[in-house]
Amino acid sequence: MNPRFFCPEGLCPDSEMPLPAAVAHHAERVLRLAVGDQVVLFDGGGGECAAILLALGKQPVARLGPRLAVECESPLAITLVQALASGDKMDWIVQKAVELGAVAMQPVAAERSVLKLSGDRAAKRVAHWQQIAVSACEQSGRNRVPAVGDIVTLSRYLAQPVEGTRLILAPGAAGALARKAPPSGPLSILIGPEGGWSPAELALAEHAGCEPLALGPRVFRTETAGLAALAALQTLWGDFSGEA
Question: Matching CDD domains, A to Z (predicted)?
Answer without folding.
Answer: RsmE-like
